[in-house]
Amino acid sequence: MQNSATPTHCPYCALQCGMNLTPAPDGTVEVSERADFPVNRGALCSKGRTAPAVLSSRVRLTSPLVRSGGTLVPAGWDEALDRIAEGLSRTRAEHGPDACGVFGGGGLTNEKAYTLGKFARVVLGTSQIDYNGRFCMSSAAAGGIKAFGLDRGLPFPLEDIPKSGCVILVGSNLAETMPPALRFFTELKENGGTLIVIDPRRTRTADQADLHLMPRPGTDLALALGLLHLVVADGLVDEEYVRERTAGWEDARAAAMAHWPEYVERITGVPVPQLRETVRMFCEPESAMVLTARGPEQQSKGTDTVGAWINLCLATGRAGRPYSGYGCLTGQGNGQGGREHGQKADQLPGYRKLDDPAARAHVADVWGVDPDSLPGPGRSAYELLDALGTDIRSLLLMGSNPVVSAPRAAHIEERIKSLDFLAVCDVVLSETAALADVVLPVTQWAEETGTTTNLEGRVLLRRQAITPPDGIRSDLEVMHELADRLGVEKGFPTDPEEVFEELRRASAGGPADYSGITYRRLAEENGVFWPCPTPEKDAPAGDEDVHPGTPRLFLDRFAHPDGRARFVPVSHRAIAEEPDEEYPVLLTTGRVVAQYQSGAQTRRVDELNAAAPGPFVELHPRLAERLGAAEGDPVAVVSRRGRAVAPARITLGIRPDTVFMPFHWYGEGRANTLTNPALDPTSRMPEFKACAVRVEAVER
């Protein structure tokens, strides 16, 4: 174990806040401020401060587990690995390679995500791989690629936000989901800029806003189109910018003009005067931004919704200019890098498309395989999970807990139980791991070195601060051992820097080009923004020729071949499941400050449980009165897919036609039992953010 402080990064959200870790004499690990990292400047939320608690053997897995007589019991590593190899081999032999599924996580480092994608395609030969980042920002990614030719969560650093004149924040409660980021919005207002928050709830973030719009859940698309209509009607289009830097304006303009303000008010519930005030605040300053999060993205029309907000930025000349643009607030710690390097069903390392012959040839050459041996694109995350036990008979799962986090979660739990074989690699015995045939305990963030890519596109180096306990191995070691047992003896190194060097070569020339990034640079420069290509081969040697990275995208040109951004014409359409007489209320879901994602780790931290001990149902006093429910009374929320029960939290800060539930808990308060798996046709994002429910009082 090391004795001095190690500079590293938080294991949780996509801010990837900097922190120092120091082993204490009593065997614990102390967290201290790391003020040199520009994203958080030393500030940490409660999750970051308590992150070392999950390193304790009291809460973590310490031995492989295998199922014996219906019960998981401790086993040796060789036995556990042999059983996984046998299970996967048997499935391939009996049903073919695509009967083996692989499901990853947005918390895996770039090295692990890269290796997992390679393992699926080279060792198993399966196309059936995806990851829980599909549930995070896939709609924003699809919208960004359509409009700009490239997707990177934020095309500018967070430090640009306070320098903007106005920010529209759509569907994000970052005061709870990533609290250290709130300071950038506080500084925005201190500098004279304005903040507009769009959310059906009066959140801690909305409390900071100069203007808060409360649309009906699932109507963000109509709202954005209504704002664009007003921009056109009031003569606020930047005609020169549109002419010189974009394409497709006329069709997008025609689509927006069908969404006049009074029509949009009827759809969204946002009064016309607020629509007009939003346009005024957004268009008056020289610079402005639109930032979206899961609210508008986790919809069955999420890609179109993102496209509508991008159209607003393009029409007003607010993209590819200083302190302006569209950006997405990525959620998971490595949600950005996780999909760039091969976990996603349709992508290869470097953000290359799996069905592109040139991309297949490049990556196959790095991997030393025939391009024709690589499988094609597979199912998206929900579709993969839904196929478990039928088309997919065995599953290798790393760093995800779909029994809690997937939509229609009770159904997905049944699909997982129907598998012939399930193997899980995790640091804790999550609800999903508890169903496995084999569970492998793996190293955590503080016990290993690796890279992540934060919401800005800044590639970071997480450093190992402590030695893992005896009996714990890394995911890279697991994949090396399994590959060897499955007949692939080379190509799966266990050293993360060696893996990253291969990742650099595989990403070279791709949209997410990491080839100019090294561990040394990451340590010395506090991270490097991609794309960061290697200098031309004939360029003279020397540090002055090293590519500096790209903190700000699109200032000169967009990533389409002609350098122009694309307007995408979109029109409002209803959510997949509108309220009716039987299910008259809308449910929306989200997070709370003290818990993270499925809660598999944070629910094991006493301090966080004390701050957020369990699920709740947030509802308006008028709805509570109709139910006869008082504060704290149990209420049932029922959808076409299931029923969840939790205490009532009565507040004026939510629309009367809407209820809210956080999704961190299992058991009778499992919110994702209710949510709708209706998928966006482009991104395949499920509609977590809006579904029809009824609310019932529960007898005490």
Overview of this protein structure:
The structure is a single chain. With 700 residues, this protein is of the alpha/beta class. 30% of the residues lie in helices and 18% in strands. The chain contains 23 helices and 30 strands. The chain has a seven-stranded mixed β-sheet, covered by helices on one side. Strands 24-26-25-30-23-27 form a six-stranded mixed β-sheet. Strands 10-9-8-12-13 form a five-stranded parallel β-sheet, sandwiched between helices. A hairpin with a 4-residue loop joins β25 (634-638) and β26 (643-650). The longest helix has 19 residues, at 77-95. The radius of gyration is 24 Å and the shape is globular.
Features:
700 residues; alpha/beta; 6-stranded mixed β-sheet
Shape: globular
Number of helical elements: 23
Report the β-strand fraction as a percent range.
15-25%
Taking pLDDT < 50 over at least 5 consecutive residues as the criterion, the unreliable ranges are: none
- How many E-type strands? 30
* Average pLDDT over all residues: 96
Main sheet overview: 7 strands, mixed
Structural class: alpha/beta
The helicity comes to 25-40%
What is the spatial order of strands in the main beta sheet?
Answer: 5-4-18-17-16-6-7
Q: What is the rounded distance between the termini? A: 52 Å
Gyration radius, in Å: 24 Å
Give a nutshell description of this structure:
This protein is an alpha/beta fold.
Please specify the SSE layout and strand pairing:
Layout: E1 6-9, E2 18-23, E3 29-32, H1 46-49, E4 65-68, E5 71-74, H2 77-95, E6 100-104, H3 110-124, E7 129-131, H4 138-148, E8 166-170, H5 174-177, H6 182-190, E9 194-198, E10 211-213, H7 220-233, H8 239-245, E11 246-247, H9 249-257, H10 261-268, H11 272-283, E12 289-292, H12 294-297, H13 302-315, E13 325-328, H14 335-340, E14 347-348, E15 352-353, H15 357-367, H16 381-386, E16 394-398, H17 402-405, H18 409-417, E17 421-426, E18 438-441, E19 450-453, E20 458-462, H19 475-485, H20 496-507, H21 519-525, E21 528-529, E22 565-566, E23 585-590, H22 606-611, E24 617-619, H23 621-627, E25 634-638, E26 643-650, E27 658-662, E28 676-679, E29 686-687, E30 691-697
Parallel strand pairs: 6-7, 6-16, 8-9, 8-12, 9-10, 11-22, 12-13, 16-17, 17-18, 23-27, 24-26
Antiparallel strand pairs: 1-2, 2-3, 4-5, 4-18, 14-15, 19-20, 20-21, 23-30, 25-26, 25-30, 28-29
Helix pairs in contact: 2-19, 3-19, 3-20, 4-13, 7-9, 7-10, 7-11, 7-13, 15-20
